[in-house]
Amino acid sequence: MEKRKLGGSDLFVYPITFGGNVFGWTIDEQKSFEILDGFTAAGFNFIDTADSYSHWVPGNKGGESETIIGNWMERRKNRKQVIIATKVGSIPGTTTKSLAKDYILKCVDASLKRLKTDYIDLYQSHYEDLNTPIEETLEAYDQLVKAGKVRWIGASNYSVPGLLAALDASEKLGLPKYQSLQPEYNLYKREGYEKELEQVVVDQNLGVINYYALASGFLSGKYRSEADLNKSQRGAATKNYLNERGFKILKALDEVSEQYNASLASIALAWLIARPSVTAPIASVTSLPQLEDLARAAELKLNNEDIAILDEASSWQ
User: Fold this and answer.
1) Catalytic choice (14, 53, 127, 241)
2) pTM over 0.90
3) Which residue of 40, 59, 186, 286 is surrounded by the most CB atoms within 10 Å?
4) What are the backbone dihedrals phi and psi of residue 23, each rounded to the nearest 5 degrees, phi first?
5) Contact (Cβ atoms closer than 8 angstroms) between residue 115 and residue 51
6) Cβ burial 191-211 (10 Å sphere, 16+ → b, else e)
7) Among 317, 312, 303, which Cα is nearest to 249's?
8) Separation CA 55–CA 63 (nearest Å)
9) What is the pLDDT of residues 262-295, one digit of tens each?
10) H or E segment and range at residue 148
């Protein structure tokens, strides 16, 4: 595997980001340690989480994922070997978003405590906050960068106008600039990113760490009928993909996967990795055998013909 530079930062990551939303949700701490050990043993180094993960689980308050990652890094004494990305701005247990300066300054210290570290490699705005001036948000990040608590900043779930406004403010005011974008993007959900965001990230030299890279597991081929939806806790999220377009994409993945003797998940991730604007798609697993799909995806080099087959099957135009 070759490392990839994340935007204009000095962060060099391998081409798969581990999605930490499963920690404290579908897998407990012991299993999470096992998965993280396997992920890094396979050569990967980039882990993404958020201060709100996994508040949606009964009994959780948010911060469980960061806590597990922090405990793991402390136990393994490997903080310098991994790159940690987390997010701020989604208030657990509510639909409220806040990127106010005082809220960010409070939350970063809580995240650092849970992660058992004195710095965050990539600190991301989880969602746009239309009630807070972007200048105020960037000033908070500027304070954190100068204090050494944050190395670089990124944006997640931003619209084109919001992203451009933030980048413009950074340039005009000499404040930290978003170096990455975390949008939803996969073989099924293509239009929003390709039509609206992709040209912006290319023009602005932003790294892309897209989430739902496997469409909640649909692109693994595990869910092909409503009867399959109870195969996991995330199965219900794939119901809307069970349609003519979804089945056409699975058929193309079946065809291409045979050519490479690889799983559908590996092919779907390899298609993303081959996209020039994508740095490291985010994927999660809950068992060690599933890690093999990530490792295989990172080493696959799809040829132009097979990429075209997948492009055509998933075309939104």
Assistant:
1) 53
2) yes
3) 186
4) -70, 125
5) no
6) eebeeebbebbeebebbbbbb
7) 312
8) 7
9) 999 999 999 999 999 999 999 999 999 999 999 9
10) none
